[in-house]
Structures are given as C-alpha cells and as structure tokens.
Write a structure and sequence with these properties.
Layout (H helix, E strand, L loop, with lengths): L17 H8 L42 H23 L4 H17 L5 H23 L7 H15 L1 H28 L1
Helix pairs in contact: 2-3, 2-4, 3-4, 3-6, 4-5, 4-6
Length: 191
C-alpha cells in the first residue's frame, strides 16, 4: 500500500511553544517608580466599604420585618383562618372572613421589610383567591357538580360579590405601604 505525501503546513520547528516564543521577543516595559512619600504622612485611607449586596439604589437603614415569603404566609394564614372560621360558623364567607382579610392585609403591609414592599400589595389578592379555593375544596357541600365546576363557581361568585372587599383590602395595603415609606423617607432625610 502506498502512502500519499502529506498535504498542509509543514510541522513546526523545534523550540519553545509559540506562546513563549512571543514573550521572549518582546521586552517588558520599564516600571515607573513612585514618588517618595513625605515623612510622617500615611497612605490615603480606603473609601468606606458597602455591605455585601448593596447597590446604588436607595435602601433604608431599617431592614427588619417580614420577607416576601413571610408576607405571603402571614397574609394567607390570617385570611384562611378567618375564612375557615366564618364558613364553619355561617356556612359561607361573610363578615369574619372580611375582617380577617383586612386585618391580615394591613398587618402584612405594616410589618414587611422595605425591600419587599411590593409583596405586601401582591399578597392580599392571592390570599383572597387561595382562601376561596381552599374553603370551597375543604368545606364544599355535597353537590352533583364536578370538583372544577364547584370550585370555579365559588371563585367567580366570591370575586363578583366580594370585589369591593378585595379591592379595598389591596388598596388599604397599598396606602399603608406608601405611608410607611413616606415616614421612613422623612426620618432618613432628617438624619
């Protein structure tokens, strides 16, 4: 069997690898000497360090309070507790459910930390809907409709007849968040 002659570039010449060859050809630039520091003068202090995760955005000094997950848990817990008690007492969602929803919305809005203020406004409608679905699922009457039909009708009924409560609780949470934010802004500007 005959071999074909090699095609392509010739093999590299012996010597250092190409990366080192380039370094050997270039000389390093001379280093500039620093001017001497006057006697008794210390180096410039470093600028103050920011805490980890801090950006240029406004962050209030007080960061304690509920996280977004905590806001969701407290909002849902309070609303669900009121809904279960109300359904067991009156076989429907009425006054106790409404009061529990409003109180949990205001509590979450007041206790949430500054970084998660938006969660205090988003949590009430989610807690409202989840409570209606869970109460319908757990304590729904024995009807001839399918599960999805019963839960869907209960959710539509609650959203239509209790829309004022839903909007009111969400608006109340938004007002509490805005007032709290204004108070923190004034306190930080005064300091």
């Amino acid at each position: 069997m005959r071999r074909r002659p090699p095609t392509g570039p010739p093999p590299p010449a012996a010597g250092p690898p190409p990366a080192e060859r380039g370094r050997m050809d270039r000389a390093a630039p001379p280093r500039r000497a620093r001017p001497p520091r006057p006697a008794g003068q210390h180096p410039r202090p470093a600028p103050p360090r920011r805490p980890p995760g801090a950006s240029g955005a406004y962050r209030p000094a007080h960061t304690g309070g509920l996280t977004a997950a905590g806001a969701a848990v407290f909002g849902l817990g309070g609303t669900l507790l009121g809904g279960l008690v109300d359904h067991l007492a009156t076989d429907g969602l009425g006054v106790v459910f409404g009061l529990a929803f409003l109180i949990s919305s205001v509590f979450v809005a007041w206790k949430v930390r500054a970084q998660d203020w938006i969660a205090a406004i988003i949590a009430p409608p989610i807690a409202f809907a989840v409570t209606v679905v869970l109460v319908s699922t757990l304590l729904g009457g024995d009807t001839h409709e399918s599960y999805l039909t019963r839960v869907g009708l209960d959710l539509i009924t609650a959203l239509s007849f209790k829309a004022g409560l839903l909007w009111g609780g969400t608006a109340l949470a938004a007002v509490v968040v805005l007032v709290k934010r204004r108070l923190i802004d004034r306190a930080s500007n005064a300091a």
